[in-house]
Amino acid sequence: MIKLLEPLKKATKHLSASSYPTLGDIYLIFGGIMVHLHDHIKKENFTQCEMASSILQKLEAYWNIMNQASITSAILDSQNKLTIFSYEKIDDARTHIQAVYDLYSSIFLDISITQPTNINTTRQYFAQLRCQETSTISTTNIASKLSHYLDLQVDEKMDPLLWWQIHVKEYPIVSKMAHDYLMIQATSVASEQVFSVAGNTITKTRNHLLPETARASLCMKSWLTKKIRVKENNAENLD
């Protein structure tokens, strides 16, 4: 039983954190768990086959809901890209991310064409519109950006958000995709914890706290939990 549930315990602990897991972690972790369960179901001497089958059936039901979005996030994670996909699924993963990229590209081009910037006169307005004919941002050049990103070696030591902050100008459209998808947390545990902490502070017997007092109490509790200290010369500037 311990051998069966140990990976699930690790997955729960990882996905319930508040600072680092994103939707991309779902693909990696769920895939690993399902392989783990399949291996135990096939073992003839394993006495918990029925339980492993039940867990697998439940995970597969959730997987049908989260699969597509988690693929996008997993590829946009600079620590993963296509390395976490099996050889048989790499082509499908490329096709999927290309479809998402094409959607973002069309939106990006529409915005750049229909909303000229830095316009002071009517002449400049129409001059910039006229230039769009020759500066259709070379569609082939845009498309190559995604391939270039996917072909780069993964960087397992750098935080994905920091990586995209550095390369935002190099990959303008892909970085917009990363901005939208990597901000999605793996689970709602973190947000629920925030509401739970607030509920323990603003109780039925303490329901007349001023907003400023409640905010300061929650802020102080967060600092104490994370062992954040404020320098004395900055303390007087805090409300």
Q: Helices and strands in order, then pairings?
A:
Layout: H1 2-15, H2 23-42, H3 49-76, H4 90-114, H5 122-131, H6 139-151, H7 160-166, H8 172-181, H9 189-201, H10 211-225, H11 232-235
Helix pairs in contact: 1-2, 2-3, 3-4, 3-8, 4-8
Quantity of strands, as a count: 0
Oligomer: single chain
Shape: flat
Q: In this structure, how is the largest beta sheet organized?
A: none
Radius of gyration: 24 Å
Helix content range of the residues, please?
55-70%
The whole-number mean of residue pLDDT values reads 77
| Strand residue content | under 5%
Molecular structure report:
This protein folds into two domains: 1-186, no CATH class; 189-235, no CATH class. Helix 1 (2-15) packs antiparallel against helix 2 and helix 2 packs antiparallel against helix 3 (49-76). The chain is built from eleven helices and no strands. The longest helix is centred in the first third of the chain and has 28 residues, at 49-76. Residues 133-139 and 232-239 have low confidence and may be disordered. The chain has 239 residues and is an all-alpha fold.
State the gist of this model.
It is built from eleven helices and no strands.
Descriptive keywords:
0% strand, mainly alpha, 239 residues, 11 helices
